Amino acid sequence: MNPTLTDIIRDGLWHNNPGLVQLLGLCPLLAISGTMVNAIGLGIATTLTLLLSNVLVSLIRNHARPEIRIPVYVLIIASIVTAIELAMNAWFHGLYLILGIFIPLIVTNCAIIGRAEAFASRNSVPRAALDGLMMGLGFTGVLIALGALREILGQGTLMANAHLLFGNWGHNLTLQFYPSEHGFLLALLPPGAFMAMGLLIAAKNWIDSQLEPEPTASRDESTNEPDTAPDNA
Amino acid sequence: MRFRTESSPHIIPAHSVGGVMQQVLLALVPGTLAMTWFFGWGVLVNVLLGVLFAVAFEAAMVAARKRPVMATLADNSALVTGWLFALAIPPLAPFWVTLIGIAFAIIVAKHLYGGLGYNPFNPAMVGYVVVLVSFPREMALWPAPDTLPESPLTLLQTLQTVLTGSLPAAQEWDSVTRATPLDAMREGLVSGRTVDEITASPVFGSFTETGWEWIGNFFLLGGLYLLFRRVIHWHIPVAVILGVAIPAGFFWMLDPGSYASPAFHVFSGAVIIGAFFIATDPVSASTTPLGRILYGAGIGVLIFVIRTWGGYPDAVAFAVLLMNMVAPTLDHLTRPRIFGRTRGGPPPGDGHA
User: Fold this and answer.
1) Do B168 and B255 lie in a common domain?
2) What was the pLDDT predicted at B183?
């Protein structure tokens, strides 16, 4: 009863989105989403970590003994995050300074160990890679939406400090909507992050409820599901 | 002769929600007029705007939730929220401060939690804290009390200021606005001056502060009216005021040079209006007698603590919101003994049944 490739993509990006549905990794999600550039930076780092850790965990899934699998996953994830941290320090030093402790803290992001345990440890390498990539992109998408919302409300800009991520031409990417002294400071503060997150989750649930077919139809679908997905890898 | 039998309830409550809110509005009038006397037309303009926005948002949210609009508006609770919010913000704050604050109060703090009776936090104070945290510059526009500026703003000039956010020509913010006494006290103490030196400034009057002391007295009058009409109970206001006055008096006696007097603390800022009108919100406050006393005392102590050692000059809104969070626990812990039962035990004789 393995999910199809389309299911993996849909789950990661929407139905089982780590930010909006699983509510995992909320600490960096809320702390770093003050501006869109920070959000993109952390999103890329998290996606890379998810992708690499899922691949490695999937590779050793038949060799790691179940008793010690969790410490093994933690070691793998920690090594990957350390490598990414060093790389960011070397090539995106400005962004690295802004993101600070939240780069090493990717290790503790529950979404990553959650995917390693729940998906990568029981699926083949390509599927695990796809899952890691899609979960990462889903997480990044939420980060970016939150970052854009908070940056526009809080300081009236979009993509401020883009040069930290894209080099010098990034200066042209910054949009200024209104003077920053009129910003809605609450959006930049932690409570604003929680409120914006709540509104995003509400929006997701509302969209789902609009897309949902009639209740009777969906019940029919769910009873059919076991028959249509018999393939076992 | 036939005796008519009726089923319960036999005692019909004298207060409907709408009626209670009407009493509260009536009780707010003297204090509001006193504020207008000392701080100019901006107070009335803000109250009008606040009430208007509150009713508009309330109607929109009730309609969006598919509830009867007119029946819900008749409970007058939006009026109270809008009015209290308007009294909390500076009289010269631009209109969009009121708009955003009321939007948060009605939409987020009230209706997203389920409407009147379900809101865990006082809506007016949520709205006030949102704008206080978000717009520090606009929230500092307290005009000097009436007697101080050379040329106070006229009604038209006030309207222009509130609607455009900028003063009419020939007026300067620095000549129209003044640090509030609480601000002056806080800044002065931080920069190392003594209370006596600070209170020599013209914003301080004979008793505590020019203007504010009388505003406090008139809100006290309204509060006593509410007590007299049994709209509120004595527990919360008394506990709030004692909660401020006792710690303030203790530190004042230790060192009158670096701690303001209890009278200053009680009659400055929003303590009186907070004690009688805001902390007594029947929805978000504690409801048992002992719970009310603890709830009020908590608010009072928090006001003193935040004023003295915290980051803001006044703290009524923060204190109320913090204690709102505790209120359900207080209610749970202080449930009164039910007649015929031991405290926390089964009714006597229950074991024989």
Assistant:
1) no
2) 76
Given B124, B148, B177, the domain boundary residue is: B177
Amino acid found at A44 = I
- Whether residues B153 and B198 share a domain: the answer is no
Spell out the per-residue pLDDT of chain A, length 233, in tens: 577 888 888 888 888 888 888 888 788 888 888 888 888 888 999 999 999 999 999 998 888 888 888 899 999 999 999 999 999 899 888 888 888 888 888 888 888 888 888 888 888 889 999 999 999 999 999 999 999 888 888 887 887 777 777 777 777 777 777 776 677 888 888 888 888 898 899 999 999 888 877 665 444 444 444 444 444 43
pLDDT of B138-189, one tens digit each? 887 777 775 555 566 777 777 777 777 777 666 666 666 767 777 777 777 7
Assess whether pLDDT exceeds 80 at residue B347.
no
CA nearest to B267, candidates B220, B203, B234 = B220
For residue B36, give the 3-state DSSP assignment: helix
Are the beta carbons of A185 and B134 separated by less than 8 Å? yes
Q: Do A181 and B108 touch (CB under 8 A)?
A: no
B152 and B227 together in one domain: no
Residues of chain A positioned with their CB less than 8 A from the CB of B136: 185
Pick A206 or B203 by higher pLDDT: A206
Q: Considering B177, B200, B234, which residue would you say is the last residue of a domain?
A: B177
Co-location of B41 and B188 in the same domain: no
- Taking the Cβ of residue A59 and every Cβ of chain B, the question of whether any pair is shorter than 8 Å is answered with no
Domain that holds residue B137: 15-177
- Best of B132, B133, B134 to substitute, by most chain A Cβ atoms within 10 angstroms, is B134
**B7 lies in some domain:** no
Q: Which residues of B touch A185 (CB under 8 A)?
A: 133-136
Task: Give me the residues of B, 112-141, that contact A with CB < 8 A.
Answer: 130, 133-137
Residue A160 vs residues A35, A153, A166: alpha-carbon distances, Å: 7, 13, 12
- The nearest CA of chain B is from the CA of A232 a distance in Å of 45
B5 belongs to a structural domain: no
B209, part of any domain: yes
Residue A211, CA distances (Å) to A8, A204, A207 in order: 19, 11, 6
**Percent of chain B predicted with pLDDT > 90:** 35
Q: Does B352 contact chain A (CB < 8 Å)?
A: no
**Cβ neighbours of residue B198 closer than 8 Å, sequence gap 6 or more:** B184, B185, B188, B189, B204
Contact residues on chain B for A189, CB-CB shorter than 8 A: 133
With respect to residue B161, please indicate whether it lies within any of the assigned structural domains. Answer: yes
* Whether A189 contacts chain B with CB within 8 A: yes
Query: Does the CB of A188 have a partner CB in chain B at under 8 Å?
Result: no
- Chain B residues with CB under 8 Å of A184 CB are 100, 134-135
Residues in B touching A181 (Cβ below 8 Å): 137
Q: What angle do CA B75, B76, B82 make, to 5 degrees?
A: 145
User: Per the structure, how many domains does chain B have?
Assistant: 2
Angstrom CA distances, B250 to A65, A88, B209, B278, stand at 65, 55, 21, 26
Taking CA B260 as the corner, what is the angle to CA B258 and CA B262, rounded to the nearest 5 degrees? 140
Q: What is the DSSP letter of B177?
A: B
